[in-house]
Amino acid sequence: MKPLEIKPGIYWVGGIDWNLRLFHGHVTPRGTTYNAYLIIDDKITLVDTVKYYMVNEMLDRIKEIIDPSRIDIVVSNHVEMDHSGGLPKIMELAPNAKVVTSPQGQKGLKRYYKQDNWDFIVVKSGEELNIGSRTLKFVHVPMVHWPDSMVTYIPEEKLLLPNDAFGQHMASTGRFDDEIGWDIVREAAAGYYSNIVLPYGENVLKALDVVEQLDIDTIAPSHGVIWRSYIDKILPVYRRWASNQTEPRALIVYDTIWESTKKIALTLQAGLEEAGVPVVVRFLQTSHISEVMDDLLESKAVLIGTPTLNNGMMPTVSALLTYMKGLRPKNRLGLAFGSYGWGGQGAREVAAAMQGMGMEMPLDTVNMLYLPDESEMVAVKEVGRKMGELILNIK
Ligand SMILES: Cc1cc2nc3c(=O)[nH]c(=O)nc-3n(C[C@H](O)[C@H](O)[C@H](O)COP(=O)(O)O)c2cc1C
Predict the structure, then answer these.
(1) Which of 254, 266, 309, 373 to mutate to test the pocket of ligand 1 (most atoms within 8 A of CB)?
(2) Assembly ipTM
(3) Which helix (H) or strand (E) covers residue 31, if one does?
(4) pLDDT band at 13 (very low <50, low <70, confident <90, very high)
(5) pLDDT tens digits for range 124-140
(6) Does the C-beta of 260 come closer than 6 Å to ligand 1?
(7) What CATH topology corresponds to 251-390?
(8) Is the CATH number 3.40.50.970 carried by domain 4-242?
């Protein structure tokens, strides 16, 4: 396994997880990488490690450069096990190495790995550590996306090691953004943002304020490719996502048993499109809830449909709403719709859940008895068209 020298004396020594398809509940069609970085200086420093089953891959790369027992410092920017999973092995091979982490990081690492003999250097936000010809500057970025989250900046190299921020779940042979292309990297970064970082927009904005003051030519995150050519593009996009700025687009998501709800969904789509609004339609039996979040990231409106099943909504819709609630999208327009046979609670429950998330619901819930007839469909299409007009006016 070859390491890759990303700057003179600084190597990517991570692992490539080509076959990962699910990462804590969201789909990863492109797999992922766990990025660790080895810095050769007076104090040999490893920044982050990899998931436990990639440890040997990381060690093979490190061994191409140095004997791992020579590592003096391991920086743990983030406790989560996809970045700390290799720490016990490194500490076994380099028992005198010091673990540099935030106070919350130390707490988390102790809880996960039950190691009392690791020698910690606990750093405050803004603290610096000289490792020879380079300085490591640590900035805490709490809740981007755990309380312990920290970034490491190396001013002499104009290099930011921000851990999960700016990450993308994407396995690739190229390690740099321009080897993949902006559109693909942006899409992968959006998928990562919408499923992991979205709830923490306010903290991301604070972190961006700090990052934008730094002299940076390379951002090397802990997942996916390293940013060197598209930094000027991704920073404003991150700011847009963090501010919940959207495009005048609509997302329709539904489940159905006998296709009445599907018919309503497609009729709403026709109305929205008539108003000039682009629409994505997702069927929850074939689309994963995390793919729905990818679409929601830049969509002004979301329309969610369910039949009534046993006095409530369908479990697929309930799972989506639970997931969406946790990810806390803001500044969205919402509409609930569905079909029912006698009680009709399903669509009403969806409307209540969307309201509970703070969505603006300007139009009445569309709840139709069994299969709507032609005149009812005309009314449904009109609802879609009105929603479209609201989306375009509100932009
Ligand atoms: C297993 C089952 C349970 C149902 N339970 C309810 C119910 O509790 N209340 C209700 O109003 N309709 C209930 N219905 C009727 C459906 O809501 C109705 O058939 C609706 O039109 C289905 O929409 P769809 O065609 O989009 O699947 C139930 C239907 C099925 C198949």
Answers:
(1) 309
(2) 0.99
(3) none
(4) very high
(5) 999 999 999 999 999 99
(6) yes
(7) Rossmann fold (3.40.50)
(8) no
